[in-house]
Amino acid sequence: MAGKQQAGAETRDRLIKAAGESLLAEGYAGTSARTIARLAGVNSALVFYHFGGVDPLLLAALDRATDQRMTTYREAVASARNLEELVEVATQIYRTDLAEGHITVFSELVGASIARPELREEIVKRSEPWIDFVEETLDRVIGGSALAKLLPPRDLAYAAITFYLGVNLFTHLDADRSRTEALFSLAARVAPRARLLTLRLPRRGGRDA
């Protein structure tokens, strides 16, 4: 019995890995139970046996990628103490994600969800932890400052996620990445000029926040 359970777990693992690879190589439109099964080296019926369909399997692949990237992102931003350092870390994350294709999995499913309401609901649920993470990070770096009062971290988090997805999609049109790189260069130039706005405001009574 234990051997059968282990074999089932291994098959699920191979299917999840193959689903992510198929999204990266073929996109959502080119991904099917057959293409995933071929990459995993199993019968396509196992896609439905273990996951109930292609979309649930793709969501499982997204969940795995999310868990891995969230851990990496948290470690990466932990040392950022100001807006300048945060922009630098975000630029490094963007370049790594672009090179390794991590954000492509999410982008492909976002695009597919436009025509599939049931998929859209699942994507929205999976977007919330990212928005929370960005909000928490921004609140740690600029919370209590004039900039945070002008642009609340929650609103900035929505803007950051929207920007990041948009930039990733645009890189498919920007062959040499010069224009998308220019956006991060602009952010790096603007961040130091916003330094005064990111200083924490003193509390009433003269004590620092």
TrEMBL record:
SUPFAM superfamilies (UniProt xref): Homeodomain-like (SSF46689), Tetracyclin repressor-like, C-terminal domain (SSF48498)
Coiled coil regions in record: none
DNA-binding region(s) from the entry: 32-51
Glycoprotein among keywords: no
Keyword entries, A-Z: DNA-binding, Transcription, Transcription regulation
Molecular function GO terms recorded: DNA binding
Protein name in UniProt: TetR family transcriptional regulator
Protein species of origin: Acrocarpospora pleiomorpha
